[in-house]
Amino acid sequence: MAASPRVFAWKIGGDQGEGIDSTGTILATVLARAGYWIYGYKWFSSRIKGGHTHFKVRISDRPVNGASSDTHVLVALTQETIDKNIDELLPGGVVLADEAFRPRLPERTPAGVRLVPIPLSEIAKRAGGALMRNMVALGASAYLLGLDLEPFHEFVRRRWGAKGEPVVEANIKALEEGYAFAREHLPGEPFRLPSPDGRPKLTLTGNQALALGAVAAGCRIMAGYPITPATGIMETLAGILPKFGGAVLQMEDELAAVHVVAGAGYAGARAMTATSGPGISLMQEGIGLLSMTETPSVIVDVQRAGPSTGEPTKVEQSDLLALIHGGHGEGPRIVIVPSSVEECFSDGAEAFNLAERFQCPVIVASDLALGEFLHTAEDLPLEQVRIERGALVEGEELRQVGETGFQRYAFTPTGISPRSLPGQPHGQFLATGSEHNVFGHVNEEPENRRRMMEKRWKKLEAVDFPAFTYEGPERPDALVVGLGYTRGVIDEALEALRAHGASVGHLQVRRLSPFPAAELRRRLEGLPFAFLVEQNATGELRFLLEAHDAIPAGVVVEEVHKADGRPFVPEEIARPVAERLGLQGDLEAWLRAGEQLAPVGEAVR
Amino acid sequence: MAASPRVFAWKIGGDQGEGIDSTGTILATVLARAGYWIYGYKWFSSRIKGGHTHFKVRISDRPVNGASSDTHVLVALTQETIDKNIDELLPGGVVLADEAFRPRLPERTPAGVRLVPIPLSEIAKRAGGALMRNMVALGASAYLLGLDLEPFHEFVRRRWGAKGEPVVEANIKALEEGYAFAREHLPGEPFRLPSPDGRPKLTLTGNQALALGAVAAGCRIMAGYPITPATGIMETLAGILPKFGGAVLQMEDELAAVHVVAGAGYAGARAMTATSGPGISLMQEGIGLLSMTETPSVIVDVQRAGPSTGEPTKVEQSDLLALIHGGHGEGPRIVIVPSSVEECFSDGAEAFNLAERFQCPVIVASDLALGEFLHTAEDLPLEQVRIERGALVEGEELRQVGETGFQRYAFTPTGISPRSLPGQPHGQFLATGSEHNVFGHVNEEPENRRRMMEKRWKKLEAVDFPAFTYEGPERPDALVVGLGYTRGVIDEALEALRAHGASVGHLQVRRLSPFPAAELRRRLEGLPFAFLVEQNATGELRFLLEAHDAIPAGVVVEEVHKADGRPFVPEEIARPVAERLGLQGDLEAWLRAGEQLAPVGEAVR
Amino acid sequence: MATLEAFKTDEKAWWCPGCGDFGVLSALQKALADLDLEPEKVALVAGIGCSGKIGNYINSYNLHVTHGRTLPAALGVKLANPSLTVIAAGGDGDAFAIGMSHFAHAVRRNMDVTYIVMDNHIYGLTKGQNSPTSDPGAKSKASPWGNVEQPVRPLSLAISAGATFVAQGFSGNPRQLTRIIEEAIRHRGFSFVNAISPCVTFNKINTYDFYRKSLVDLEQDPEYRANDRAWALRKLLETGELVTGIVYRDDETLSLEERLPGFLQAKPVAQRTREELEAEKARVRQLIESYR
Amino acid sequence: MATLEAFKTDEKAWWCPGCGDFGVLSALQKALADLDLEPEKVALVAGIGCSGKIGNYINSYNLHVTHGRTLPAALGVKLANPSLTVIAAGGDGDAFAIGMSHFAHAVRRNMDVTYIVMDNHIYGLTKGQNSPTSDPGAKSKASPWGNVEQPVRPLSLAISAGATFVAQGFSGNPRQLTRIIEEAIRHRGFSFVNAISPCVTFNKINTYDFYRKSLVDLEQDPEYRANDRAWALRKLLETGELVTGIVYRDDETLSLEERLPGFLQAKPVAQRTREELEAEKARVRQLIESYR
Ligand SMILES: Cc1ncc(C[n+]2csc(CCOP(=O)(O)OP(=O)(O)O)c2C)c(N)n1
Ligand SMILES: Cc1ncc(C[n+]2csc(CCOP(=O)(O)OP(=O)(O)O)c2C)c(N)n1
Ligand code: SF4
Ligand code: SF4
Ligand SMILES: [Mg+2]
Ligand SMILES: [Mg+2]
């Protein structure tokens, strides 16, 4: 029996539209129910059928939240899958390939990797049709990973039960035949996965978590327009909100969507929209209106690779400046950045509190990796969700205002003014995108203008959303700074570095606007070295840090940024930091060792 | 006879829609034809009729290009005009007011200011109707300013000749009666304007100049959508382009407008659009497409006060960050900033060369003060306009390409690739907003992506458009830094400072993207003090300077920025700089002295 | 019981003397009073333009949005609180140029919002450029050789797009306009009122006089039946849409809100208190568990 | 003389096997060849969607724009160089959701561009949400309780908006579709071809089978006359637009380019060389002097 690697990586690859995605999801879900931590990562492109795609499930007995460049088991449904992914295979690894396409390993195949052809298509046909191929592969994988089939059967029953017994049976048959074939024909013993804690985990994407957070916070109106990789939020909410007496509207475009939010927010609903880059560009004018009318509103940007249509299915963090500064003129916005599935949930909830407390648009800057990839979580922090509705004015107060008119935009020490909602007697006011006075009446007197601009910006000073999270020693030799999905990757990189004796800290930026310059400066003060990790071409986080003078003199800042569409993997971070710190020891070996099947070649005899 | 002030300021005020604007324009035009330099500045609001408006004409024998807070003669058509503008009157100044509304001076009227009621409405009725009131006022003003009437008559004939003799005669009669009344009833001698050089000047707005520059550079397609204060560009071109076999299209919105430019630019036309803030927000997605497809294109933003609808008729420079960084993802754009009417012309032309040479969108960041206010110019630099069409590929080269396909996006050392135009045989290619390879085919391979992003950004490195203009000693004690319309105001401020012995330099930023960090840094290096002047609330130029690390250590930077809708006046700049430099002497007095009517009270006996 | 006065404000209207928009404003105020609505239960969403200032002069909840986006915003208001009477208003440019798409989609969506377009066949606020309803050949500074485009025909367009209430009134006939607006507000679903509202400053073609001479009251036609789509379309074609009255109405089709599953049965989302939302939170536990 | 081959490329189309878009692509290629056009004289502007990929597979000048903006971009191409044959193509979402306004305006502008909408009643590329042409009640992940909106009727809408050429073809009938596209390209002015192009992956309602059973060829109707607007509108209403053929055409109305003053008489602006533009520069002196 093979030793258990720290994180086990199973990958399936084939043509798009052939169920690669859902096969990976099934494995991930079954494992998570068994108590494993998993991370499901897919590589796909903007087409529905054809073209190579692959889905990797990383499996561990502790949290794993990032991509890697290693694979232990590759299930190949096409030769292209082998050719494109073989370099990832670790010694001792196995390529499980459909015999039907006469698979072969290329010359550059890493040593110790075995090809195991298996008649997937043939078995599938016997079990109930060509469509069952993936289930056969799953059955074989189950054997190879030393898993029981029963949880898979249970999954099949839950998922396809409604489609009738024959469907369920065909799937189960496919699983069993795959398993049986593998047991009979595969040499040696199966791999051994690390043992899980047995507590079933949640398996979900950041988009799903964010949608759930919004529901928890009382969001009842969602207006959207489909766009990869944000559609999942709309689709999740579409299944939920009607049950809460709310509604999801698929609008004609993003211009419409953001204005539905403006109307609903004005009228007192907790309302949101979700989009990706191109949609954000279209919403810039509407977001300005939200700033100017001080309308609580939530906009989610699940970032993808730009500019323009760019690479709709590839990960990038390149909307940061546009989210803060993209509108004409100067309107305050709050921008927060989740960096885990749990934070997608809590930010999806907290955004609504911020929006109502500070009466402005709140943007949640998520990204494709968070939004679309599969994560596990012990739980989502539902109990911590509080609902704070801000300075809503009471009926009694309004009655006192009476005839003189309600000062919706009253000047106050915090800049936050009392807010009435349509329907409340005596609370009538004009909310306008034009400059206005305390009553909301259009007013362009220079002094009024000056005070109103000041008032709107003043509000942001009190924003108490955490600037960042920090984990590590008080005075590390190196501080790694990331944002968004990179948290999990940085965590793994730092684990490697720490194993080699490095004193490293991990700072994940959580708020971009108002930019927490002072807090960051304080945290950086006195440190010798900071290393920025961001997925874009121009270094937007670096730009913001510089512009806000958040880097104290003396702190050497290096950075790794890239915009090639591939998510970061731990070694891209660990390696340069190790070099900078002059780390002793074989980091390279460590990075892979933990995931290696030792002793090589024993796994599959 | 009164002494001649350095700059003489005449102002007319009344209700909107009563011809205030055109009355000021007539005076300015007549004076400019006589060889004066003038600056015509208006205060107005987003309504067609009613509400106070005023128009000031500053008159000098040398260039004057900014607003001021002084007035010598105020023509008041309403009491509100007096109440709102009286503080501006200089000792010796005159308020010429229509008797009809029983004008009175408020208590706070500066000493030495005289009210001269004159029966404007009554005389007008006699001359041909109430509409003639402004002409009567002009006639009276002509007398008061010591001007001949003949040039006014000539103007009337040119402007209204086509409307028939009766119209011309009524206007001339009104002018004459106003003049005669003033001569008879005004006490004392008229003022004396500085003597002009006699060379007729051009009188035009920055919008008009920019449109002319575009025509000179071969722009033949303009697609727009009306918006204050950019409409003037479309309207000017609408009168011109059809005569050049071109066309102006008023589109259904700004989304459409920018995409017409995309199509036309792709097909080889020099095409442009012009808008203001809200339109820029709507165009962000389209601009990204232009960056990604490397399509030459010109977009003008005549900035106004934002955010949202903001103050459509008020000056502001608050789109800077949005113009550079407002799109989702990272697409290269060139952003240049004219700061005079001559530069509006030359930038309006040069933008097209930059667009074709660097194959990207070029944004001209103008502003309301440049775009809408009246300027004079000796000439516009037509002869310096060169047409450079960049890397257009020749038919012969394409023939050689033949069947293998044309590499529209070939990798080159400069990042600039050869460009074919529809219609050219063998030049067919796909221009797409999706990531693509050298042929334009959609391609998401990480390595291709990396190189393409690099290539697109690489191009900007060679942009040779001037970073800034500088005027002053090599090592001044203070450097004043502005951009856009503030040039003229800073000039006046520096004149005052220099008159008091200060060594000051004037740097006007001309390019925002690619940001000329190195050039600016070099210019600032070693200087003790820089003073930034920008019209916005958050200090966007400062932000850019910091972000790009363009401020060398040791340079103390102060700034004045405001967003109250009023253009800067010289003392707002001169005063803080003088203070900082510890200037001796009475700057205050000087600032006003040059414009004072000395000796006080003599002007109008 | 709100009186007409209750819908008025002290603010002096910024329109040019004689502007058609005055008539639309007072017809709307009168209609709201006639319908016995309370100012606080009325939400008016206005666009950008001279017309868009209507919200400045009426005592109700007013939201003044970006150019062209009144309808999505009005939809948002309505969804948040279906107990409100929601009116959208704006100019012909706002509606049929930059807002054209939202107009077409609002029509097919059929949310219960009344849309009043103040149609002066011109861009007033930006000083007289042609609008999508301007006559062919009309000259303006932006088209000195005359308009080269065919005008949008809003009434036929709305009917073809599936509208359930289409009417046209004239600011010069306030009594009729008031009645039309009342009917429009009463209509359950999307109601579109094109209010001809002459721009006395920039439009020298489509004047009060022109309309007084050319408008015909469709409802006086002996063949008139409000729910005859084909007849309406034919009449509109014949008259070049120079008609007034309720051109078409369909009182059968359900409104959007009625079609949204469970929506009208629930308490309006905007009226749910913090406590109620906290209570609803509990139901999220189940949703979360479904991912396990 | 270009052959059909001349319009093909090596690139393998990325559509699902059986996708209706294959048929539209080949009909278009065939039409271009039949019309004897040269690849370099054809400019195709495509939108975003599965359909929008059509430009990737045809040998012509191709511009692939943002979602919904094909028509303004095509207008730009045409203005730059009226000697080109300009085609715009995209999906039903591209055309009738985000692009709806441009569609309505292109129709009334009547520029000489052919617009092919590849209508599958669904958002294909984003994986199967309802589109504006989806059937009422149709379920999707984004509307699990079924579509609550009435569908856009593109053909009637276009005719009501003043279109001069409106046709519908079916990807399952390539011969007819080819002929329609040829006629559309020949038409001087804006021509709109709604090409029914089933999505075999996500749309289980509007399938080939469904259309084979329900489409009727309008041109076979004994009463058919291509230029009878009222008849066409009535027929469309009766059939729920389940027709094929050239529904309406008007060959009298001038195209936009013909109406633009002096435009077609001049050399196409995109063809003017640097030297020619330099020469035209001289005329600007006069313009400048007019400000003196
Ligand atoms: C995005 C955007 N583009 C342009 C404008 C400028 N603008 C203000 S009002 C208006 C059109 C006014 O016409 P209409 O809607 O008919 O209203 P009217 O003034 O005639 O009542 C325009 C184009 C704007 N405010 N926002
Ligand atoms: C501004 C913007 N919003 C959303 C999207 C995402 N998107 C891509 S294709 C598409 C719709 C596709 O539907 P359709 O136009 O009918 O084309 P089909 O795929 O069905 O051919 C959408 C919404 C986008 N690319 N840009
Ligand atoms: S410009 Fe025209 S539309 Fe605007 S207020 Fe004046 S009359 Fe009315
Ligand atoms: S998803 Fe539908 S529209 Fe897209 S390629 Fe496949 S069949 Fe065609
Ligand atoms: Mg109008
Ligand atoms: Mg579609």
Structure description:
The complex is a heterotetramer, with 2 copies of chain A (605 residues) and 2 copies of chain C (292 residues). With 605 residues, chain A is of the alpha/beta class. Chain A is 37% helix and 20% strand. Chain A has 4 domains: 7-200, Pyruvate-ferredoxin Oxidoreductase, domain 3, CATH 3.40.920.10; 203-384, 3-Layer(aba) Sandwich (Rossmann fold); 395-462, no CATH class; 468-591, 3-Layer(aba) Sandwich (Rossmann fold), CATH 3.40.50. Chain A is built from 20 helices and 21 strands. In chain A, helix 10 links the parallel strand 10 and strand 11 (297-303). The longest helix of chain A has 21 residues, at 165-185. The termini of chain A are close together. Residues 598-605 of chain A have low confidence and may be disordered. Chain C is of the alpha/beta class. Helices cover 33% and strands 16% of the residues of chain C. Chain C is built from 11 helices and 10 strands. Chain C has helices at 21-34, 70-80, 92-96, 100-109, 154-160, 174-186, 208-214, 229-239, 256-259, 274-281, 284-289; strands at residues 42-46, 61-64, 85-91, 114-119, 122-123, 129-130, 165-170, 191-196, 216-217, 243-249. In chain C, helix 1 (21-34) crosses helix 6 (174-186) and helix 5 (154-160) packs antiparallel against helix 8. Chain C is globular. The model of chain C has no long low-confidence stretch (mean pLDDT 96). Chains in contact: A-B, A-C, A-D, B-C, B-D, C-D. Chains A and B meet through helix 10, helix 11, helix 15 and helix 18 of A and helix 10, helix 11, helix 15 and helix 18 of B. Strand 15 (430-432) of chain A pairs parallel with strand 2 (61-64) of chain C. The structure holds thiamine diphosphate (2 copies), iron/sulfur cluster (2 copies) and magnesium ion (2 copies). One magnesium ion binds at residues 49, 91-93, 120, 122-124, 131 of chain C.
